[in-house]
Structure formats: structure tokens, C-alpha cells
Sequence to fold (367 residues):
Amino acid sequence: MKTMSIIRGLAVIAVVLGHAIYWVDLGQAQLAGVPGVEWASNADLLQSPTYHIMKIVYVLTLFDVPVFLFASGLFMAYAQMSNKGLNYSNIGKWIKALILPFIIWVTAHSLVSWLPIVIIPQPGAAGLIERFLGALNLAYFVPLVVQFYLMAPWICHLAQKNWRILLLGSVLIQMTNSIVWYLPRLGIPVGSTIEGFSRISMFFFWAWAIYFPLGVVCGLNLNKIKPWLDKNRIVLTILVILTACLMVLEMETLGRFPEMLDPSQFSLTVIIYAIACIFFLLSVGERYLPYQRQLVDIGLKSLGIYLAHPLILLTVFRIVKYTVPALVYIPYLYLPLLFICGFGLPYWLGVFLSKRSNKVYYHLLFG
Fold:
């Protein structure tokens, strides 16, 4: 359980950092007056080394959602091995603990995003429904993991009966989705239906099919794979570095770099990189990583941090936009500000609410 919390802590840090880089990019685009192109980047920034460093860092954070899903699979494996076993009564409680904070934070984000437009009308601005969908887009992990939770008893049963078949089937599903994703990027014409299907795949289990079952299999067989992890720690470190380099190269080759919102978690290099990161983190987790106590604490609050940070980043961006807009053009100052606020404020809110007298509010907002 400690390992699970550690890797969740690292994953939520990566999520906040990646989204903070997004807000640097979006701020440049908005202040440069680029209409209707949220992911376009200001030409001046595109020429700067700082910009490319940010994009490389962004690419390196793409292990975040895969690690979250893997940790969720670990959790289900531990539940399966417990005295009570895994049943839908417990799964229903865990889903409820996810859904309530999800509804609260997505609703809050939608309203905060929409209300200033009501007060000061802006022609062509997105309405409440569009704002809600935008907030949902930043919190898609929750509906995604609910799907896996509902399938967890079947996945755990198959993992105990024949884990090789389970992982093979998961890989085939994942690769099918990746092939569909690659087609238009390789210049192969596809119909609008298939392209639209690819765009919404991020919300459904088939686009992330490998990570949760892998977590279940590793959780059920952790004592057996630990010797292999210890023996291959250096190999896994090298694999992480090599796949990270391949990711950046692929971004350049496919012409997606520096477009950040392209769902690049579906590319083969990112999938291999994420799996390499997972095994690397398992190999170093409880023995070699520094600040373990802090990472465990962050991991326990990871759901609330994940759900709250988009609202914090939006608020910080608006304050900077209307007070010191020049700061947006200084990424080495603006990015740390976004990250510190986006991570620090939800974390300390969680610390405050986790006190005994505030437990009810903690569970509502942090699960």
C-alpha cells in the first residue's frame, strides 16, 4: 500500500506540472490575440529555448495517468487478496468516494470559468455547457477509473486464472486504439466517424487497456516479480531514458510537437515509456526514493489535488492576466508560480481538512 501511495504522489505532481505548462502556453496564445486556437503558441515563445525545454518536460510527465491507473489496479489486487475479498458492495463505496468530489470540483470549475463571461459579456465566448465539457476534459481520469472498477472482479478473476491471456488481450485492445490514432497522423485518410471516435477515446477504457490490468497482475504477484525488478533496476533506468528520447523524436517526426493537447498518451513510444516508468518506480519505490513520507502523504490526497488544481490554475491565470500580464511572457517565473499554486493550495487545503473536526469536508472534496 505504501508503494501505491508513493507512485500516486509522483503521478499527481506530474499531472499538475503538465497542466501548468499548458497554462503558460495558453496564456501566450490568448495574450498574443490568437482567436479560437487554444493550443496555438505565440511565435516569439516558439523560438525560445525555454519553450522547448517546457515541452520536453511536458512530454516527460505523460506517465501520469498510466501510473494512476496502474496504482488503481494495485489497489484492486490488494482488495482481492484481503480477507473480505473483492465484491461490488465495496466497489460501490469506492466509486461513491470518487464521484462526489468529481461532481463538486467539475461543477465549481465550470461555474468559475463561466461566471465572469456572464458579468462581462464576451462575443463568441463558450457557454456553460461548453465550460462544463472543458472541465470534464481535465478530469477524465475519474470516469475512466470507474469503468475499470466496474470490471475489476472479472479482471482480478482472469488475472488469477491466466494472467498471460489477460495482458495479451489488454495489449491487443490498446494497440488497436493506437493504430486508429496513428492513421491520420501518418497521412492515411480516415472517415470523420473514425477520427471523432479517436478523439473521445481518452474517456473510455479501451484507450488505456493495459495499465489497470497490469496493476492487478503485479499486485497479485508482487513478491514474485520483486527479485526481477531488483535485478533489472539499471536496465529499467536506461529504458526510461531511451524511451523518453524516442518520445521527443516521435513528436518532432509526426509534426505534433509542439502541440500539447494532442492525446499523445496513445502513441507507442509513450505507452512503452509509461510501462518502463511503472516498473522503474516499483524497483526503486520503498527502498531508494527520497522523501517517501511526503510522497505517501501527497498520494493519499492525490484525488483532491488532481480535481482541484485546474480550478486553481485557471484562477491564477486570470489574476495574472488582469494584473501583471507581462509575467506570462517570463515562463521561468510564471511556470513555477502556476505549479506552486496549483499543487500547493490543494495540498494544504487537504492538510487542513484532514484534521478530525473537518473529516466530513475532506471526504467530500478529497475522496
